[in-house]
Amino acid sequence: MKLNKKIKGVSLHIIPFSEIRDLSISDRIKKILTLVLSSKVLIIQGRLRPEEEIRLIEDTMAMVDHVKSFRGIELAVIEPDMGNENMFMKIKKGIAKTLVGHHNALTIVGPASIVKEIKKDPRKLEVLLR
Amino acid sequence: MMKILKKLWKGLFGKKGELKIGFYGPPNAGKTSLANVISEDWTGESIGKVSEVPHETREIQYKEKVEIKHKGKILVFKIVDTPGIATRIDYEDFLHYGLKKTEAKRRAKEATQGIIESIKWLDDMDAVVVVLDAAENPYSQVNITIVGNLVARKIPVLIVANKIDLKNANIKKIEAAFPEYEVIGISAKKKTNMDGFYAALFKLARKI
């Protein structure tokens, strides 16, 4: 049997909070999507505000519509210090902390062509690659 | 700006006009099935087509002046059924449901536009019913993003755990994820616990 498939590896790109702190919403989203389009899986220090997350989804959809072979993103946020709290508290704290520049969380964003699924429950996160 | 003007108008004239209640959630959670049950119960007409193929609803669909009665009280509102919000759309996923390539591609294109439309309508809602599939993991980022945006916009939320007729449905998991919200378990398909849902809808309307 001939094996044609090669393991190409995954390019992880770490973005420290300081790199996006002073950017506008548009510039943050643009930076994230530009990197995702170049097939990088991003680990961002901090989390986006809810309005940024929804804008990321909105702009992602616009790009799926216009960029051939782009199928979207997989997205997840982990907050190591809040493992036992429910989602509502996370949302509330997330909103409060993003307003003061919270960067204890990690946001993972990857192209859907590479990241098959990010399985999340309150205590663990599994990133499944294609 | 529009929201401020709307609040100012309400403050000046004390009238809310017709309430807009949006049905939001991930694809295939049963938003249209639930909207259809409500609409059929109270107007005799359905709102949209349902299908097991994800992203069947790709445009905002609504029914105006839906008047529901519960325990002697009346609630009149506009049902706004929205396309499911997702972070990825792959036309190849639709091929597994027997769609032809061109049809699948067209569906994918329309689905992306539907998601953008859903998001744009968020600001215009007076209250939102978030419909989740009780058999699925509620801890997805899409669910968190939707609820997070509603919290940030101060829009009242009711969470519906749909498909409780399924064997692997788990309302407790959804309740554990969203303990600050009332979670109503229903089956839109089997019309289970619709009374409980209508009671919760009246409670939701009081929060507006």
- Backbone structural class of chain A: alpha+beta
What is the terminal separation of chain A in angstroms? 22 Å
How many helix segments of chain A? Answer: 4
Question: Helical proportion of chain B?
Answer: 25-40%
Spans of chain A of at least 5 consecutive residues whose pLDDT stays below 50 are none
The quaternary state of the protein chains shown equals: heterodimer
* Quantity of strands of chain A, as a count: 6
Main beta sheet of chain B, described? Answer: 6 strands, mixed
**Helix and strand pattern of chain A:** EHHEHEHEEE
Protein chain pair with the most extensive contact, residues per chain: A-B, 33 and 36 residues
**How many extended strands of chain B?**
6
Q: Tell me, rounded to a whole number, the average pLDDT of chain B.
A: 92
Ranges of chain B where pLDDT stays below 50 over 5 or more residues in a row are 11-15
Q: Give the N-to-C terminal Cα separation of chain B.
A: 19 Å
Total helical segments of chain B: 7
Biggest sheet details of chain A = 4 strands, mixed
- Order of H and E elements of chain B: HEHEEHHEHEHEH
Order of the strands making up the biggest sheet of chain B: 2-3-1-4-5-6
Work out the radius of gyration of chain B. 17 Å
Q: Could you provide a short overview of the structure?
A:
The complex is a heterodimer of chains A (130) and B (208). Helices cover 36% and strands 26% of the residues of chain A. Chain A is an alpha+beta fold and 130 residues long.
Topology:
The complex is a heterodimer of chains A (130) and B (208).
Chain A: E1 11-15, H1 17-20, H2 25-37, E2 40-45, H3 50-66, E3 73-78, H4 87-99, E4 106-111, E5 115-120, E6 125-129
Parallel strand pairs in A: 1-2
Antiparallel strand pairs in A: 2-4, 3-4, 5-6
Helix pairs in contact in A: 2-3
Chain B: H1 2-13, E1 19-24, H2 31-43, E2 61-70, E3 73-81, H3 91-95, H4 101-121, E4 127-133, H5 141-152, E5 157-162, H6 171-177, E6 183-185, H7 194-206
How would you describe the overall organization of this protein?
The complex is a heterodimer of chains A (130) and B (208). Chain A is an alpha+beta fold and 130 residues long. Helix content of chain A is 36%, strand content 26%. In chain A, helix 2 packs across helix 3. The longest helix of chain A is centred in the middle third of the chain and has 17 residues. Chain A is globular, with a radius of gyration of 16 Å. The two termini of chain A are 22 Å apart. With 208 residues, chain B is an alpha/beta fold. Chain B is 40% helix and 20% strand. Chain B is built from seven helices and six strands, in the order H-E-H-E-E-H-H-E-H-E-H-E-H. Chain B has a six-stranded mixed beta sheet with strand order 2-3-1-4-5-6, with helices on both faces. In chain B, strand 5, helix 6 and strand 6 form a beta-alpha-beta unit. The radius of gyration of chain B is 17 Å and the shape is globular. At the A-B interface, helix 3, strand 3, helix 4 and strand 5 of A face helix 4 and helix 5 of B.
